[in-house]
Amino acid sequence: MKRLSVDFVENWGKLEANYTGGLDSLNGLANGFGKAFILDAADNLIVIIGNFRNGTLEGQGSVENLATGFSYDGNFVNGIEDGIGTEITAGGHTYVGEFSNGKRHGFGNRTNGQLNSCGNFTIVA
Predict the structure, then answer these.
(1) How far is CA 55 from CA 2, 26, 60, in A?
(2) pTM confidence score
(3) Is 107 in contact with 95 (CB distance < 8 Å)?
């Protein structure tokens, strides 16, 4: 059976997942290019497309919540946004730039309605 790693699915806080694509013949996990369809607790459909390794996104990929409009297209490391990417929030705000461990961090450009911010973003605890 083609499947995603439990850690990857739990990272997205989701309850059910289905995957189509490449498969590692030794461990049975998603491996190579594929698509994941995940339902969250509110039954929102999350579509994830990209390169998988050991059941999690690795390298280029995209995530889109079809109900809220949230999307991210860019680089992933161990299933988390990391590197260069584009994020569109549920409210329609856009950030294009660097991410680190799932957060906006580094040089980027954020557009929030009429307001445009460009510069270095830092993770604040």
Answers:
(1) 9, 12, 14
(2) 0.82
(3) no
Instruction: Give residue-wise pLDDT tens across range 53-101.
Output: 988 899 999 999 999 999 999 999 998 999 999 999 988 899 999 999 9
Closest CA to 29 of 8, 15, 50, 45: 8
| The one-letter amino acid at 97 | G
Q: Amino acid letter at 52?
A: F
d(CA 78, CA 108): 22
Reported as a single tens digit per residue, the pLDDT across 11-55 is 555 556 788 888 888 887 888 999 988 887 788 888 999 999 988
Q: Phi first, then psi: give them for residue 7, nearest 5 degrees.
A: -60, -40
- Residue 1, classified by CB atoms within 10 Å of its CB into exposed (0-12), middle (13-18) or buried (19+), is exposed
The two three-digit tokens of residue 116, written as one number: 């445009």
80-88 vs 56-65, strand pairing mode: unpaired
Q: Which domains does the chain have, with CATH numbers?
A: 6-121 (2.20.110.10)
